[in-house]
Write a structure and sequence with these properties.
Helix content: 40-55%
Shape: elongated
CATH superfamily of the largest domain: Alkaline Phosphatase, subunit A
Structural class: alpha/beta
Number of helices: 18
Number of strands: 9
Strand order of the largest sheet: 2-7-6-1-5-3-4
Number of domains: 2
Strand content: 5-15%
CATH topology of the largest domain: Alkaline Phosphatase, subunit A
Largest sheet: 7 strands, mixed
Radius of gyration: 26 Å
CATH class of the largest domain: Alpha Beta
C-alpha cells in the first residue's frame, strides 16, 4: 500500500534526481538537450534508432548514478562514493578552467599523461579551480549525506548489477556512434575516455625505428653552428621587439644581430604537438596521424648527421635523463649527446644552466647542431624569475591561480617572467658566445591565454582554441643577418622551421620543399592561410585557422 509518507519519499527522490540531472548536465553545457534536438530532427529509421539507443544509454547511466547515491551503507557504497568524488573533481576542475568547454576531454587526458613533468606546475596554476572544485564536491557530499537520512529508500543489487552494464553499454554506444562522450555523466565519461585512449594506443605510443635517410646535402652548410631554441609559453605579441607596449625585451630591442619575423603561428597549441612538428617536419596534411606513420619518418637529427653535424639535444624542462614530447630511444640514436639538468632548483636558473654547455659545444672545431628545449615561462610564472628582478607589479601571490578578476596582476607576473627567462637569457647567452659562424633560430612551443576568450585555461584546448594559444615569436640571430637575408613579417609558422634548418644545412630546394618553404630562400606570397593543430596528434584533432597570411 502506498502511504503518504512513502509517496513523499519518492517525490523527494524525484526532486533530488532532477537536481542531479541539472547539475551533471551543467558540466557539459546541457549537451543532453542538444542530443534531444537531434533526436527530433528528420532521420531515416537507422539514424533514429541510433540516436534513440544513444539517449537510452545516457538515461541508463544517469539512473544508475541515482541508484548508487542511494545504496545501502557498506564498504561497496563507500568505495563507489570515493571513486565518484575523484572523478567529479576532475570534471569540475576542467569545467572551471575552460568555461567554454564541456569538462574534461580525451585529448586532455592524453595530454596530462604525456606531460607529467609539468604536473606540479599545473596544480599550482589551477589551484584556485582545484580548491573551488573540492569545496563544491564537498558540499555535494554533505548534501547527499543529509538527504539520505530523509529518504529511507536504499538500493543494493540494482546499482551493483547496473554499474558494469551501464559502463560497458555506454562505451559500446560511444565507440560505434558519431557522437562524443562529453554528454555522459562524469563517472561514465572519464572511464570511457581512458579506455578509448588506451585501446587506441594513445598512452602507449607505438614508437618505431626511423626510416634510413640516404639523402645528403648538395652544398656546404651556411653556418658552422646551427642552434634551434624552442622556448616554453612565450606569446609573440607580448614581446616589445614585436611592438608590445610593455618593455619585455629591453636587451633584444637594441641588439643588432637579431631579426624578428613578427607574429608566427605555432604548430600546435600545447608543447607535445608543436615539438613533434618542429623535430620531425610534420605538416598539417599529416595530421591526425592515426596510423603512427610520422614516428618512422626521418627526424631533424638524421638530416643533421648526414650533413656532418654533431648533434646535441639540451632540455632544461624534464627531470634528469627523462624524455618528453613523443621522443623515444629511436630518436636518441641520432643524437650525439643528450643533456638534462640534475639539480632542478631554483626553477628560474634552469635555462641559465644550459649556457655553459652551449658555450663549450661552440668552442669545438666541429659543425654542431643544437636543439634546445627551454623551461621558459611555464606556469606558475612567479617561479620563473627571482623576486628582486621583478619590474612590474602588483603580481600574483604564491599559489594564486589566474582568474578573470586578477588578470592585470597575472599579466604583470607573466611579463616579469618573459623579461627574465627570455630577454635575460639571451642577454647572458649572447655575451658568452660569438655569432661569427653561428645562427640561432628561436621560437616558442605555443602561446598563452591569460583569462581571455571566456576561459582561464592557458593552452591545450581541443575545441575552438583561442588564437592566443598559438601566437608565438620567431627570431633569428646571426652576424649581419639583416644584410644577408630579407624577410617579411607575420606570415611564418612552425611548419616552416624544419625546411629552413635543412636549407641552412646545405640541402637542395627539392629536398626541403617536400616539407614547406624556407625562411631563407623562399618568398612566401601569403596565399595560404596559416593554421595550427589542436587535439591528439595520433587521434582526434582539429585544424584551426590562425589567419589568412603565409604558409601552413
Amino acid at each position: 500500500m502506498i502511504t503518504k509518507k512513502l509517496l513523499s519519499k519518492y517525490l523527494l527522490l524525484f526532486l533530488c534526481s532532477l537536481v542531479v540531472f541539472v547539475g551533471i548536465n551543467s558540466l557539459s553545457n546541457f549537451a543532453f538537450f542538444n542530443i534531444m534536438d537531434v533526436l527530433y530532427q528528420p532521420h531515416g529509421p537507422k539514424g533514429l534508432l541510433k540516436v534513440s539507443i544513444y539517449v537510452a544509454s545516457y538515461l541508463f547511466v544517469f539512473f544508475n548514478l541515482i541508484f548508487i547515491l542511494f545504496m545501502k551503507n557498506g564498504a561497496t557504497f563507500k568505495i563507489l562514493i570515493f571513486a565518484l568524488f575523484i572523478l567529479l573533481n576532475v570534471d569540475i576542475v576542467y569545467y572551471l578552467i575552460d568555461k567554454n568547454g564541456t569538462g574534461i576531454s580525451m585529448h586532455q587526458i592524453v595530454l596530462a599523461y604525456h606531460e607529467t613533468s609539468h604536473i606540479l606546475g599545473a596544480f599550482w596554476a589551477y589551484s584556485g579551480a582545484i580548491i573551488m572544485s573540492l569545496l563544491i564536491s564537498g558540499a555535494i557530499l554533505v548534501a547527499i549525506k543529509v538527504i539520505r537520512k530523509f529518504i529511507d529508500i536504499k538500493f543494493f543489487y540494482i546499482p551493483i548489477i547496473m554499474l558494469p552494464i551501464s559502463l560497458v553499454g555506454s562505451y559500446m554506444v560511444f565507440n560505434k556512434s558519431a557522437y562524443s562522450a562529453y554528454e555522459y555523466p562524469f563517472y561514465a565519461k572519464i572511464p570511457m575516455y581512458v579506455y578509448a585512449a588506451k585501446s587506441n594506443g594513445y598512452f602507449d605510443i607505438k614508437f618505431k625505428a626511423r626510416d634510413t635517410l640516404t639523402i645528403h646535402p648538395d652544398s656546404a652548410a651556411k653556418y658552422k653552428n646551427i642552434i634551434l631554441i624552442v622556448d616554453e609559453s612565450v606569446r609573440g605579441d607580448y614581446l616589445s621587439i614585436n611592438g608590445f607596449n610593455i618593455q619585455t625585451t629591453p636587451f633584444l630591442d637594441t641588439y643588432d644581430n637579431v631579426v624578428s619575423l613578427g607574429i608566427a603561428s605555432s604548430g600546435g597549441n600545447n608543447s607535445a604537438p608543436s615539438q613533434y612538428i618542429i623535430r620531425n617536419g610534420v605538416q598539417m596534411r599529416d595530421l591526425p596521424d592515426n596510423k603512427f606513420a610520422t614516428l618512422a619518418i626521418p627526424n631533424i637529427f638524421q638530416y643533421a648527421k648526414n650533413a656532418n653535424f654533431h648533434t646535441y639535444y639540451l632540455d632544461s624542462q624534464v627531470e634528469y635523463q627523462q624524455l618528453q614530447n613523443f621522443m623515444s630511444s629511436y630518436d636518441l640514436e641520432y643524437i650525439d649527446e643528450y643533456f638534462t639538468i640534475k639539480e632542478r632548483k631554483p626553477f628560474y636558473y634552469l635555462d641559465r644552466k644550459l649556457i655553459p654547455k652551449i658555450k663549450t659545444i661552440l668552442s669545438s672545431n666541429d659543425h654542431n647542431f643544437i636543439y634546445i628545449v627551454k623551461y621558459g615561462s611555464h606556469v606558475p610564472w612567479k617561479m620563473n624569475y627571482p623576486e628582486n628582478s621583478a619590474t612590474f607589479s602588483p603580481v600574483l601571490e604564491n599559489m594564486e591561480s589566474v582568474e578573470f578578476s586578477n588578470r592585470d596582476r597575472a599579466i604583470n607576473t607573466y611579463v616579469n617572467s618573459l623579461r627574465w627567462s627570455m630577454d635575460g637569457f639571451f642577454k647572458e647567452l649572447l655575451s658568452n658566445i660569438s655569432l661569427d659562424d653561428t645562427i640561432i633560430i628561436y621560437t616558442s612551443d605555443h602561446g598563452i591565454n591569460i583569462a581571455e576568450s571566456g576561459t582561464t585555461m592557458h593552452y591545450g584546448m581541443e575545441l575552438n582554441p583561442p588564437k592566443t594559444t598559438a601566437t608565438v615569436p620567431i627570431l633569428l640571430f646571426a652576424k649581419d643577418i639583416t644584410s644577408k637575408y630579407k624577410f617579411d613579417k607575420n606570415i611564418y609558422s612552425h611548419f616552416m622551421i624544419f625546411p629552413s634548418v635543412l636549407d641552412l644545412m646545405g640541402y637542395d630546394k627539392d629536398v626541403y620543399h617536400k616539407y614547406n618553404y624556407s625562411f631563407f630562400s623562399d618568398s612566401v606570397s601569403g596565399e595560404q592561410a596559416r593554421s595550427f593543430y589542436s587535439g591528439n596528434v595520433f587521434g582526434n584533432g582539429y585544424k584551426n585557422v590562425f589567419d589568412s597570411k603565409g604558409a601552413q
